[in-house]
Specification:
The chain contains eight helices and four strands, in the order ββααααβααβαα. It is mainly alpha-helical. It has a two-stranded antiparallel ribbon with strand order 1-2. Strands 3-4 form a two-stranded antiparallel sheet. The N and C termini lie far apart (81 Å).
Length: 282
């Protein structure tokens, strides 16, 4: 719109805003971003299979345990695939170019795959399990979701020494929550374990980042878990025992890593005090 100055009667035209002809390089998707989007897609599909294969048959009175087992295993495998994408997008971003959207995309994708998907899995478990209480399981799921939200928000605005995470990483926490559900323990111990995992995600316990040999070991562990789930799904001989073993080992790791981290921190504090005392001596 043209504005006329009443004194000079001169027409004033606002400066034209230069619109870029093409998208800036900083906002173009990179290979790492594509892997991150794969993470988000896996999280959404996990929710889809949990709904169509477990919840809907239960609400319709179709108690085909095989179908529910297959769909639950598919949902968990998709969450495991999401963790693979999450592992590789960081590795690729360090080796190749990463766009300015990388960090934001990573947080949003993690919220879907490791916040919403496991929380929804807990809600559905509370609806279909025989000894579960639906409202309690819904509150437990909210605790898991909020723990992931708080963890991701804190991760975005704090800087830590290289090589460590503060609090249980959300992929590890999500897989541990799923492992607790798959163990089919009594309702109250399951709820307490899930709340404990949520607390670990927002705690200040330091966890090592999966780099080098640890990244390879993490990847092998994920594929081993997929194999156990596949054996359980097709009702292979020993499949149930493999699933129980894998889920139990996941819980052991979740308990042992904080213990080792706390012991290492205590030893570091003691060593620092000894060095300080030694320097004060004449």
């Amino acid at each position: 719109m043209t504005v006329i100055d009443p004194e000079t009667q001169a027409a004033w035209v606002p400066d034209a805003v230069d619109e870029p002809d093409e998208m800036p390089l900083s906002t173009r998707l990179s290979i790492a971003d594509a892997l991150t989007l794969g993470n988000a897609a896996c999280g959404f599909l996990a929710v889809y299979f949990t709904t169509t294969g477990v919840l809907v048959p239960h609400l319709m009175g179709q108690t085909d345990g095989g179908m529910a087992r297959h769909s639950a295993a598919t949902a968990v495998i998709l969450m495991l695939l999401a963790s693979v994408f999450d592992l590789f997008d960081g590795l690729v971003a360090r080796k190749l170019r990463s766009s300015a959207m990388g960090a934001e995309l990573d947080n949003l994708s993690d919220l879907i795959s490791f916040g919403l998907a496991p929380a929804y899995f807990v809600v559905v478990w509370g609806m279909v399990a025989d000894d579960a209480h639906q409202r309690v399981s819904a509150v437990t799921a909210i605790v898991v979701l909020l723990a992931v939200v708080l963890r991701l928000a804190r991760f975005s605005c704090t800087t830590l020494p290289g090589g460590v995470f503060q609090g249980m990483p959300s992929p590890f926490g999500a897989l541990t929550v799923i492992s607790v559900v798959l163990l089919d323990l009594p309702f109250i111990p399951t709820v307490l374990a899930i709340v404990g995992i949520a607390w670990l995600m927002v705690s200040r316990v330091e966890y090592p980042k999966p780099r080098g040999r640890l990244a390879v070991a993490t990847l092998c562990w994920i594929f081993l878990s997929m194999g156990c789930l596949a054996a359980w799904t097709v009702d292979a001989p020993g499949g149930e025992r493999l699933l129980q073993t894998g889920a139990s080992l996941q819980l052991v790791l979740a308990a042992v890593i904080p213990a080792f981290a706390t012991a290492r921190r205590i030893n570091t504090v003691r060593d620092n005090r000894r060095e300080a005392r030694a320097t004060q001596l004449p």
